[in-house]
What we know:
Elements: E1 12-15, H1 22-40, E2 46-51, H2 57-70, E3 74-80, H3 83-92, E4 97-101, E5 110-117, H4 129-138, E6 150-152, H5 156-165, E7 176-181, H6 187-194, E8 200-204, H7 227-235, E9 240-244, E10 251-254, H8 263-277, E11 282-286, H9 292-299, E12 303-307, H10 311-321, E13 325-327, E14 333-336, E15 341-343, H11 345-359, H12 363-366, E16 374-375, E17 379-381, H13 386-396, E18 401-403, E19 408-411, E20 415-421, E21 428-434, H14 437-452
Amino acid sequence: MINPEIFKAYDIRGIYNQDFNDQFAYKLGLAYGQMRQQETGKNKLTLAVGEDMRLSSPALKKELITGLIASGTDVVDIGLAATPTFYFAVANYNYDGGILVSASHNPKEYNGFKLVRERALPVGRDSGIFTLREKILAGKATPADTPGKITKREGVLADQVKHDLDYVDLKLLKPFKVVIDPANAMGSLYFNELSKYIPGEIIKINWELDGTFPAHEADPFKKENIKELSKQVIVNKADLGIATDGDGDRIFFVDDKGEQVEPGILRAILCKIFLQDKPGAKIVYDIRPGKITPDIITANNGIPIVSVVGHSLIKEKMIATGAFFAGESSGHFFLNMPHGCYEVPVIVTLKILTELSQAKIPFSEYIKPYQKYFHSSEINSRVADPVAKIKEIKEKYSDGQQNDADGISVEYPEFWFNVRPSNTEPLLRLNLEAVNEKTMQVKTKEIIDIIRS
Protein backbone atom coordinates (compact mmCIF):
# COMPACT_ATOMS: atom_id res chain seq x y z
CA MET A 1 0.00 0.00 0.00
CA ILE A 2 1.81 3.10 -1.29
CA ASN A 3 0.26 6.28 -2.60
CA PRO A 4 3.09 7.99 -4.54
CA GLU A 5 1.69 11.37 -3.51
CA ILE A 6 2.98 10.90 0.04
CA PHE A 7 6.45 11.92 -1.18
CA LYS A 8 6.44 15.70 -0.66
CA ALA A 9 8.94 18.47 -1.28
CA TYR A 10 10.17 18.31 2.33
CA ASP A 11 9.27 14.89 3.71
CA ILE A 12 6.98 11.86 3.41
CA ARG A 13 3.45 12.37 4.75
CA GLY A 14 -0.02 10.87 4.34
CA ILE A 15 -2.98 9.22 6.02
CA TYR A 16 -1.93 6.12 7.95
CA ASN A 17 -3.43 2.84 6.63
CA GLN A 18 -4.87 4.69 3.66
CA ASP A 19 -1.87 6.19 1.84
CA PHE A 20 0.69 3.85 3.39
CA ASN A 21 0.99 1.21 6.10
CA ASP A 22 3.54 -0.47 8.35
CA GLN A 23 4.94 -2.50 5.46
CA PHE A 24 5.84 0.75 3.71
CA ALA A 25 7.92 1.75 6.73
CA TYR A 26 9.95 -1.46 6.33
CA LYS A 27 10.49 -0.75 2.61
CA LEU A 28 11.52 2.81 3.38
CA GLY A 29 14.08 1.69 5.94
CA LEU A 30 15.51 -0.91 3.58
CA ALA A 31 15.73 1.52 0.65
CA TYR A 32 17.06 4.46 2.65
CA GLY A 33 19.77 2.40 4.34
CA GLN A 34 21.01 1.19 0.95
CA MET A 35 20.74 4.67 -0.58
CA ARG A 36 22.96 6.11 2.15
CA GLN A 37 25.44 3.27 1.73
CA GLN A 38 25.68 4.04 -1.98
CA GLU A 39 26.00 7.79 -1.37
CA THR A 40 28.74 7.46 1.24
CA GLY A 41 30.58 4.44 -0.14
CA LYS A 42 30.53 3.00 3.37
CA ASN A 43 29.32 -0.51 4.14
CA LYS A 44 28.66 0.23 7.78
CA LEU A 45 26.52 3.24 8.65
CA THR A 46 24.86 4.43 11.83
CA LEU A 47 21.46 6.08 11.45
CA ALA A 48 19.31 7.62 14.20
CA VAL A 49 15.60 6.86 14.50
CA GLY A 50 13.04 8.69 16.61
CA GLU A 51 9.28 9.07 16.87
CA ASP A 52 6.57 11.53 17.85
CA MET A 53 3.54 10.86 20.06
CA ARG A 54 1.08 9.84 17.31
CA LEU A 55 -0.79 6.62 17.97
CA SER A 56 0.65 4.95 14.86
CA SER A 57 4.25 6.00 15.47
CA PRO A 58 5.42 3.01 17.57
CA ALA A 59 4.31 0.45 14.95
CA LEU A 60 5.80 2.47 12.11
CA LYS A 61 9.07 2.95 13.97
CA LYS A 62 9.33 -0.76 14.67
CA GLU A 63 9.01 -1.66 10.98
CA LEU A 64 11.26 1.20 9.92
CA ILE A 65 14.03 -0.05 12.20
CA THR A 66 13.52 -3.61 10.92
CA GLY A 67 14.02 -2.34 7.37
CA LEU A 68 17.10 -0.31 8.22
CA ILE A 69 18.69 -3.25 10.02
CA ALA A 70 17.88 -5.48 7.04
CA SER A 71 19.80 -3.06 4.81
CA GLY A 72 22.92 -3.73 6.87
CA THR A 73 22.71 -0.40 8.71
CA ASP A 74 23.23 0.05 12.44
CA VAL A 75 20.42 1.95 14.15
CA VAL A 76 20.42 4.16 17.23
CA ASP A 77 16.91 4.47 18.68
CA ILE A 78 16.58 7.83 20.46
CA GLY A 79 12.93 7.22 21.44
CA LEU A 80 10.38 10.03 21.67
CA ALA A 81 11.91 13.16 20.19
CA ALA A 82 10.82 16.53 18.85
CA THR A 83 12.19 17.23 15.39
CA PRO A 84 14.90 19.68 16.63
CA THR A 85 16.05 17.05 19.15
CA PHE A 86 16.25 14.47 16.37
CA TYR A 87 18.27 16.87 14.20
CA PHE A 88 20.57 17.62 17.13
CA ALA A 89 21.18 13.91 17.72
CA VAL A 90 22.16 13.23 14.11
CA ALA A 91 24.41 16.28 13.92
CA ASN A 92 25.95 16.29 17.40
CA TYR A 93 26.80 12.59 17.58
CA ASN A 94 28.08 12.44 13.99
CA TYR A 95 25.58 9.86 12.76
CA ASP A 96 25.35 9.20 9.04
CA GLY A 97 21.74 10.38 8.92
CA GLY A 98 18.42 9.29 10.27
CA ILE A 99 14.65 9.12 10.02
CA LEU A 100 12.04 10.57 12.37
CA VAL A 101 8.50 9.15 12.38
CA SER A 102 6.28 12.24 12.44
CA ALA A 103 3.59 14.06 10.45
CA SER A 104 4.45 17.47 11.90
CA HIS A 105 1.27 19.55 12.42
CA ASN A 106 -1.09 17.36 10.39
CA PRO A 107 -4.28 15.96 12.00
CA LYS A 108 -4.25 12.77 14.05
CA GLU A 109 -5.03 10.37 11.17
CA TYR A 110 -1.77 11.33 9.44
CA ASN A 111 1.78 10.17 9.93
CA GLY A 112 5.01 10.36 8.00
CA PHE A 113 8.80 10.47 7.96
CA LYS A 114 11.49 13.16 8.01
CA LEU A 115 14.78 12.07 6.50
CA VAL A 116 18.24 13.57 6.90
CA ARG A 117 21.82 12.84 5.96
CA GLU A 118 24.92 13.58 8.05
CA ARG A 119 24.90 16.92 9.95
CA ALA A 120 21.07 16.73 9.70
CA LEU A 121 21.27 17.78 6.05
CA PRO A 122 17.74 17.55 4.62
CA VAL A 123 16.50 15.04 2.07
CA GLY A 124 13.97 16.97 0.02
CA ARG A 125 12.63 17.83 -3.40
CA ASP A 126 15.98 18.48 -5.02
CA SER A 127 18.08 16.26 -2.80
CA GLY A 128 16.89 12.71 -3.21
CA ILE A 129 13.36 12.22 -1.91
CA PHE A 130 11.92 11.50 -5.36
CA THR A 131 14.85 9.24 -6.22
CA LEU A 132 14.02 7.31 -3.06
CA ARG A 133 10.37 7.13 -4.15
CA GLU A 134 11.30 5.49 -7.43
CA LYS A 135 13.58 3.03 -5.65
CA ILE A 136 10.78 1.98 -3.30
CA LEU A 137 8.08 1.79 -5.99
CA ALA A 138 10.36 -0.32 -8.19
CA GLY A 139 10.96 -2.75 -5.30
CA LYS A 140 14.67 -2.96 -6.05
CA ALA A 141 15.95 -2.87 -2.48
CA THR A 142 16.86 -6.29 -1.09
CA PRO A 143 18.18 -7.28 2.36
CA ALA A 144 21.92 -7.31 2.93
CA ASP A 145 23.83 -10.51 3.69
CA THR A 146 24.79 -9.18 7.12
CA PRO A 147 22.11 -7.27 9.05
CA GLY A 148 22.86 -4.26 11.21
CA LYS A 149 22.29 -3.97 14.94
CA ILE A 150 20.19 -1.71 17.13
CA THR A 151 21.17 0.23 20.25
CA LYS A 152 19.30 2.81 22.32
CA ARG A 153 20.59 6.20 23.36
CA GLU A 154 19.39 8.05 26.45
CA GLY A 155 19.99 11.66 27.42
CA VAL A 156 19.74 13.25 23.98
CA LEU A 157 17.30 15.94 25.12
CA ALA A 158 19.47 16.90 28.09
CA ASP A 159 22.48 17.22 25.79
CA GLN A 160 20.48 19.33 23.34
CA VAL A 161 19.28 21.83 25.93
CA LYS A 162 22.76 22.15 27.47
CA HIS A 163 24.10 22.88 23.97
CA ASP A 164 21.38 25.49 23.35
CA LEU A 165 22.03 27.22 26.69
CA ASP A 166 25.52 28.13 25.46
CA TYR A 167 23.93 30.70 23.14
CA VAL A 168 22.81 32.96 26.00
CA ASP A 169 24.01 34.26 29.35
CA LEU A 170 21.48 32.95 31.87
CA LYS A 171 22.47 35.66 34.34
CA LEU A 172 20.84 38.22 32.03
CA LEU A 173 17.40 36.58 32.22
CA LYS A 174 14.74 38.16 34.43
CA PRO A 175 11.98 35.96 35.89
CA PHE A 176 9.07 36.08 33.44
CA LYS A 177 5.65 34.49 33.73
CA VAL A 178 5.20 32.49 30.51
CA VAL A 179 2.20 30.47 29.33
CA ILE A 180 3.18 27.60 27.02
CA ASP A 181 0.84 25.52 24.84
CA PRO A 182 2.53 22.64 22.96
CA ALA A 183 -0.90 21.25 21.90
CA ASN A 184 -0.31 17.89 23.66
CA ALA A 185 2.62 17.41 21.31
CA MET A 186 6.40 17.23 21.25
CA GLY A 187 7.36 20.75 22.32
CA SER A 188 6.45 19.92 25.92
CA LEU A 189 9.51 17.66 26.14
CA TYR A 190 12.13 20.34 25.48
CA PHE A 191 10.26 22.95 27.52
CA ASN A 192 10.23 20.54 30.46
CA GLU A 193 14.00 20.28 30.20
CA LEU A 194 14.51 24.01 29.64
CA SER A 195 12.39 24.86 32.70
CA LYS A 196 15.13 23.39 34.91
CA TYR A 197 17.42 26.28 33.98
CA ILE A 198 15.42 29.47 33.43
CA PRO A 199 13.97 31.72 36.15
CA GLY A 200 10.32 32.63 36.50
CA GLU A 201 7.07 30.71 36.19
CA ILE A 202 5.85 28.48 33.37
CA ILE A 203 2.10 27.94 33.16
CA LYS A 204 1.51 24.72 31.26
CA ILE A 205 -1.60 24.08 29.15
CA ASN A 206 -2.32 21.08 26.90
CA TRP A 207 0.92 19.58 28.14
CA GLU A 208 0.61 15.79 28.30
CA LEU A 209 1.56 13.94 25.12
CA ASP A 210 -1.58 12.76 23.32
CA GLY A 211 -1.61 11.72 19.67
CA THR A 212 -5.36 12.41 19.41
CA PHE A 213 -4.78 16.18 19.96
CA PRO A 214 -7.74 16.52 22.36
CA ALA A 215 -7.47 20.30 22.86
CA HIS A 216 -6.97 21.58 19.33
CA GLU A 217 -5.02 20.98 16.14
CA ALA A 218 -1.25 21.23 16.66
CA ASP A 219 -0.79 24.04 14.13
CA PRO A 220 -0.29 27.48 15.74
CA PHE A 221 -0.03 29.07 12.29
CA LYS A 222 -3.85 28.91 12.29
CA LYS A 223 -5.03 31.63 14.64
CA GLU A 224 -7.92 29.57 16.01
CA ASN A 225 -5.35 27.24 17.56
CA ILE A 226 -3.81 29.94 19.77
CA LYS A 227 -7.08 31.32 21.16
CA GLU A 228 -6.74 29.36 24.40
CA LEU A 229 -3.11 30.44 24.78
CA SER A 230 -4.05 34.11 24.29
CA LYS A 231 -6.84 33.81 26.83
CA GLN A 232 -4.57 32.21 29.44
CA VAL A 233 -1.93 34.92 28.98
CA ILE A 234 -4.55 37.53 29.86
CA VAL A 235 -6.18 35.54 32.70
CA ASN A 236 -2.81 34.83 34.32
CA LYS A 237 -1.41 38.33 33.63
CA ALA A 238 1.57 36.67 31.98
CA ASP A 239 4.43 38.43 30.22
CA LEU A 240 4.10 36.35 27.06
CA GLY A 241 2.87 33.07 25.62
CA ILE A 242 4.52 30.43 23.46
CA ALA A 243 2.99 27.80 21.15
CA THR A 244 4.68 25.01 19.22
CA ASP A 245 3.43 22.70 16.49
CA GLY A 246 3.02 18.92 16.41
CA ASP A 247 6.67 17.94 16.04
CA GLY A 248 8.04 20.98 17.86
CA ASP A 249 10.10 22.52 15.06
CA ARG A 250 7.92 25.65 14.65
CA ILE A 251 7.44 28.22 17.39
CA PHE A 252 5.02 31.15 17.81
CA PHE A 253 4.66 33.89 20.43
CA VAL A 254 1.87 36.04 21.82
CA ASP A 255 2.53 39.27 23.70
CA ASP A 256 1.42 40.35 27.18
CA LYS A 257 -1.94 41.49 25.77
CA GLY A 258 -2.64 38.07 24.29
CA GLU A 259 -2.03 39.24 20.71
CA GLN A 260 -0.06 37.04 18.35
CA VAL A 261 3.34 38.40 17.41
CA GLU A 262 3.16 38.22 13.64
CA PRO A 263 5.72 35.60 12.49
CA GLY A 264 7.24 38.09 10.03
CA ILE A 265 7.85 40.52 12.90
CA LEU A 266 9.29 37.79 15.11
CA ARG A 267 11.60 36.86 12.24
CA ALA A 268 12.77 40.48 11.96
CA ILE A 269 13.44 40.69 15.71
CA LEU A 270 15.49 37.51 15.57
CA CYS A 271 17.46 38.80 12.58
CA LYS A 272 18.51 41.82 14.66
CA ILE A 273 19.42 39.61 17.62
CA PHE A 274 21.52 37.15 15.62
CA LEU A 275 23.26 39.94 13.72
CA GLN A 276 24.44 41.17 17.12
CA ASP A 277 26.01 37.73 17.61
CA LYS A 278 27.57 37.74 14.14
CA PRO A 279 27.83 41.24 12.59
CA GLY A 280 27.64 41.38 8.82
CA ALA A 281 26.27 37.85 8.52
CA LYS A 282 24.17 36.57 5.65
CA ILE A 283 20.53 36.02 6.66
CA VAL A 284 18.06 33.95 4.65
CA TYR A 285 14.30 34.56 4.67
CA ASP A 286 11.48 33.08 2.61
CA ILE A 287 9.85 34.89 -0.29
CA ARG A 288 6.49 35.42 1.38
CA PRO A 289 5.72 39.01 2.45
CA GLY A 290 7.17 40.30 5.65
CA LYS A 291 9.09 43.32 4.35
CA ILE A 292 10.16 44.29 7.85
CA THR A 293 12.65 41.40 7.66
CA PRO A 294 14.88 42.71 4.84
CA ASP A 295 14.42 46.22 6.29
CA ILE A 296 15.88 45.10 9.62
CA ILE A 297 18.63 42.97 8.06
CA THR A 298 19.83 45.93 5.99
CA ALA A 299 19.49 48.40 8.87
CA ASN A 300 21.66 46.14 11.03
CA ASN A 301 24.34 45.70 8.34
CA GLY A 302 23.45 42.13 7.47
CA ILE A 303 23.21 40.62 4.01
CA PRO A 304 19.63 39.62 3.08
CA ILE A 305 19.15 36.51 0.93
CA VAL A 306 15.69 35.47 -0.25
CA SER A 307 14.68 31.81 -0.59
CA VAL A 308 11.76 29.78 -1.85
CA VAL A 309 9.41 28.44 0.85
CA GLY A 310 10.14 25.16 2.66
CA HIS A 311 12.32 24.16 5.59
CA SER A 312 14.50 21.74 3.62
CA LEU A 313 14.91 24.22 0.76
CA ILE A 314 15.82 27.08 3.10
CA LYS A 315 18.42 24.93 4.86
CA GLU A 316 19.94 24.03 1.51
CA LYS A 317 20.10 27.76 0.68
CA MET A 318 21.77 28.50 4.02
CA ILE A 319 24.41 25.86 3.49
CA ALA A 320 25.07 26.93 -0.10
CA THR A 321 25.47 30.62 0.83
CA GLY A 322 27.08 30.22 4.24
CA ALA A 323 24.24 32.09 5.94
CA PHE A 324 24.24 32.19 9.75
CA PHE A 325 20.52 32.51 10.52
CA ALA A 326 17.29 31.98 8.59
CA GLY A 327 13.64 32.59 9.33
CA GLU A 328 10.55 31.35 7.60
CA SER A 329 7.29 33.24 8.11
CA SER A 330 5.54 29.98 9.05
CA GLY A 331 7.48 29.77 12.33
CA HIS A 332 10.64 27.88 11.34
CA PHE A 333 13.86 29.51 12.60
CA PHE A 334 17.26 28.02 11.76
CA LEU A 335 20.91 28.35 12.78
CA ASN A 336 23.88 27.24 10.72
CA MET A 337 26.13 25.85 13.45
CA PRO A 338 29.49 24.09 13.22
CA HIS A 339 27.91 20.65 13.68
CA GLY A 340 24.69 21.14 11.68
CA CYS A 341 22.00 23.41 10.28
CA TYR A 342 18.44 23.05 11.59
CA GLU A 343 15.54 24.59 13.57
CA VAL A 344 16.38 25.89 17.04
CA PRO A 345 13.16 26.76 18.97
CA VAL A 346 14.90 26.48 22.35
CA ILE A 347 17.59 28.98 21.33
CA VAL A 348 14.89 31.25 19.88
CA THR A 349 13.02 31.15 23.20
CA LEU A 350 16.16 31.98 25.14
CA LYS A 351 17.04 34.84 22.78
CA ILE A 352 13.58 36.41 23.02
CA LEU A 353 13.59 36.14 26.82
CA THR A 354 17.06 37.72 26.94
CA GLU A 355 16.00 40.53 24.60
CA LEU A 356 12.89 41.31 26.68
CA SER A 357 14.95 41.16 29.88
CA GLN A 358 17.29 43.83 28.53
CA ALA A 359 14.51 45.95 26.97
CA LYS A 360 12.69 46.23 30.32
CA ILE A 361 9.38 47.03 28.61
CA PRO A 362 6.35 44.80 27.90
CA PHE A 363 6.46 42.63 24.79
CA SER A 364 3.54 44.58 23.29
CA GLU A 365 5.53 47.81 23.59
CA TYR A 366 8.72 46.22 22.32
CA ILE A 367 7.19 45.13 19.00
CA LYS A 368 5.51 48.46 18.15
CA PRO A 369 8.42 49.83 16.05
CA TYR A 370 8.27 46.65 13.94
CA GLN A 371 4.57 47.06 13.13
CA LYS A 372 5.12 49.20 10.05
CA TYR A 373 3.14 47.18 7.52
CA PHE A 374 -0.28 45.53 7.34
CA HIS A 375 -0.40 41.82 6.56
CA SER A 376 -3.31 39.73 5.25
CA SER A 377 -2.16 36.58 7.04
CA GLU A 378 -1.94 33.47 4.86
CA ILE A 379 -5.18 32.77 2.99
CA ASN A 380 -5.64 29.32 1.45
CA SER A 381 -7.90 28.46 -1.50
CA ARG A 382 -8.65 25.18 -3.25
CA VAL A 383 -8.59 25.64 -7.02
CA ALA A 384 -9.02 23.26 -9.94
CA ASP A 385 -5.93 24.42 -11.85
CA PRO A 386 -3.29 26.20 -9.72
CA VAL A 387 -0.92 26.68 -12.67
CA ALA A 388 -3.59 28.45 -14.71
CA LYS A 389 -4.51 30.70 -11.79
CA ILE A 390 -0.89 31.72 -11.22
CA LYS A 391 -0.59 32.52 -14.92
CA GLU A 392 -3.76 34.63 -14.75
CA ILE A 393 -2.42 36.58 -11.76
CA LYS A 394 0.94 37.05 -13.45
CA GLU A 395 -0.76 38.58 -16.50
CA LYS A 396 -3.14 40.73 -14.42
CA TYR A 397 -0.28 42.29 -12.46
CA SER A 398 2.30 42.39 -15.26
CA ASP A 399 3.11 46.07 -14.55
CA GLY A 400 4.49 45.18 -11.09
CA GLN A 401 7.97 43.93 -10.25
CA GLN A 402 7.69 40.14 -10.54
CA ASN A 403 9.57 37.12 -9.23
CA ASP A 404 8.45 33.61 -10.20
CA ALA A 405 10.94 31.65 -8.08
CA ASP A 406 8.10 30.25 -5.93
CA GLY A 407 4.67 30.73 -7.44
CA ILE A 408 4.39 34.41 -8.33
CA SER A 409 5.54 37.36 -6.24
CA VAL A 410 4.60 40.88 -7.32
CA GLU A 411 5.74 44.15 -5.80
CA TYR A 412 4.26 47.65 -6.07
CA PRO A 413 5.21 50.71 -4.01
CA GLU A 414 2.12 50.44 -1.77
CA PHE A 415 1.57 46.66 -1.65
CA TRP A 416 3.29 43.38 -2.46
CA PHE A 417 2.16 39.78 -2.45
CA ASN A 418 3.02 36.15 -3.13
CA VAL A 419 0.71 33.45 -4.48
CA ARG A 420 2.16 29.96 -4.43
CA PRO A 421 0.96 26.37 -4.54
CA SER A 422 1.35 24.46 -1.30
CA ASN A 423 4.05 21.81 -1.28
CA THR A 424 2.05 19.66 1.15
CA GLU A 425 -1.66 20.27 0.32
CA PRO A 426 -3.78 20.92 -2.84
CA LEU A 427 -4.02 24.66 -2.16
CA LEU A 428 -3.01 28.08 -3.44
CA ARG A 429 -1.66 30.28 -0.66
CA LEU A 430 -1.88 34.08 -0.72
CA ASN A 431 0.23 36.35 1.48
CA LEU A 432 -0.15 40.10 0.94
CA GLU A 433 1.28 43.11 2.72
CA ALA A 434 0.70 46.83 2.31
CA VAL A 435 1.70 50.21 3.68
CA ASN A 436 -1.76 50.81 5.14
CA GLU A 437 -4.71 48.71 6.26
CA LYS A 438 -7.17 49.90 3.60
CA THR A 439 -4.84 49.01 0.73
CA MET A 440 -4.19 45.62 2.32
CA GLN A 441 -7.90 44.85 2.59
CA VAL A 442 -8.78 46.08 -0.91
CA LYS A 443 -5.94 44.29 -2.67
CA THR A 444 -6.39 41.08 -0.67
CA LYS A 445 -10.05 40.91 -1.71
CA GLU A 446 -9.12 41.74 -5.30
CA ILE A 447 -6.65 38.87 -5.58
CA ILE A 448 -8.80 36.38 -3.65
CA ASP A 449 -11.66 37.12 -6.06
CA ILE A 450 -9.36 36.23 -8.97
CA ILE A 451 -8.14 33.03 -7.29
CA ARG A 452 -11.65 31.83 -6.43
CA SER A 453 -13.46 32.99 -9.56
